[in-house]
Each structure stands twice: as structure tokens, then as C-alpha cells.
Amino acid sequence: MKPNRKLKSAAVIATLSLTPNMQRIVLQGDDLKELQTTDLGGYIKLMFHPDGHTDISNMAEGERPVMRTYTISELNIDKGEISVDFVKHEVNAELCSNIDRESGGYAISWATQASVGDLIYIGGPGNSQNIDFNANRCILIADMTAIPAVSAKIAMLDKEAVGDVFVQITSQKDLPNWTLPDGMTLHTVFGNVPMQLAEAVTNLVIDRQDVAIWCACEFTAMKAIRTYFNDNDAIQRSKSYFSSYWKQGVTEDGHKIIKREDADSEAF
């Protein structure tokens, strides 16, 4: 969040179902006109009151808002508009009625109930680590939570790029409308079990050592994928990115701790 610390106010101007399992919220605000074209695909922090709503103006002294991280899927700087996508399959009635720091559920509950005119504060944006995709083979891996981010990376690929894109989705209707370079092969994994994605990726034969890898998904799956590439001596620091966007059964606050501990023990 260092590149842009100013909190930005935005209002919901549209809410729509992109696919059966993906909800899009379109936000508009004058503060968003300050963004840069390079912020497309960057991450933002949505701010919530600990009680679950978005009015953080009346918080107790010393109390901090709950922050949830999402990616900018679409950006219109002139209009001050951004689109943010939320995976809907995580929603259930119990989650929506039991929102607190321990149980989580802040962002997806808000997204599924948001109405035009609702206000929210946003921190950021920040940008994920860029990697060098100039390699003999490019491999991009994402589950549904990382579709907005990997879409931005796909757009960066050279038209001559060769490699693979792995994406885990709930149904065929959730598949993004990507245009891939002719040399890139799309692998779709259906289901909501994180290790299904890891199993698909680890069946890939690594026959070239000059490999660029971008991977973002659930924590346990990410670790298994990272270990596989490491065991095959395919990881190059400047051409590799591994990140977990969530951990099954853990809130984002708990995931931050686990992610920090993992970063301290690994090079990526």
C-alpha cells in the first residue's frame, strides 16, 4: 500500500452477476480519478467496520477497520470508476448473519447485498510483483479469486509466448473470455477443492528450464505447486511469482499471519 496511502471514498453505481459464481461491483468516486493506467490489475483494500458495515467514521478511538484485499478488474480513470469481482460460492446464510473478526465474511456478504448508492472506503491501490515473462515457457496458474489478477498478466504476454494457463473454476460458465497467444494452452480445472488445482499443475511435465511462473491461489495449493516447481529446478527469482490469496478455513486476518510466516521461510 506504500505507493498510495490515501483513503478513497467510492459509491456503488452497479452490481451484476458476471457468471453464476462471480459478482461484480462497479464503484465510482472522484478520488478514483487519481489512479494510473498501471493500476489495472492492482490490489485494493476494502474497509469495513468491525460490526460488518462500511461506515468507518464512528469507530471507537484506537479501533482499526477490517480490511479485505481485492483486485481492480476494470478501470476507467476519466469517469473515476473501478470494477471489483467477488467469488459468490463462499456465501451462505450463516456467514451473512454472523460477521465478526473471528468468523470473517465481511467482503462477500457486503458484495452480495450491496445496492446502488452504498458508500465504502478504499485503500491503495498497490501493485503485485512484476515478473519477467521473457522465457522459453510461461506458466500462469489461478483459482477464481485470482482471475482478475491473472487476466491482467495474460494481457501482458507477448503474442509469441509459449506455455500454459491453468484456471480453477466452479462451472464452465465461470470461464473468462480470454484471448490467449496461439502458443498458450488453456487447462480448466472444475471444482472448489484447492488441491484439485495443485494436482493438475503437478501433472505438467517440465521439459524446459527457462520457465516464467505466475501463481496465485489458495495457500495449501500454492505451496504444493511451488514445491513441485522447486523440486524440478524451474524457479528463477526474476521470473517467478507465487502468492496465496486465501487459506481454506481461515479468515484473511489469520491468512496474513500464515502468509508472513511462509514468506520468512521461503524465497518467494
UniProtKB/TrEMBL annotation:
GO molecular function term, any single one: oxidoreductase activity
Domain FAD-binding FR-type, first and last residues per copy: 5-132
InterPro entries, alphabetized: FAD-bd_FR_type, FNR_nucleotide-bd, Riboflavin_synthase-like_b-brl, SIP_FAD-bd, SIP_fam, SIP_rossman_dom
Pfam families: FAD_binding_9, SIP
CDD domains (alphabetical): siderophore_interacting
Superkingdom field: Bacteria
Similarity remark: Belongs to the SIP oxidoreductase family.
Protein name as it appears in the record: Siderophore-interacting protein
Source organism per UniProt: Vibrio casei
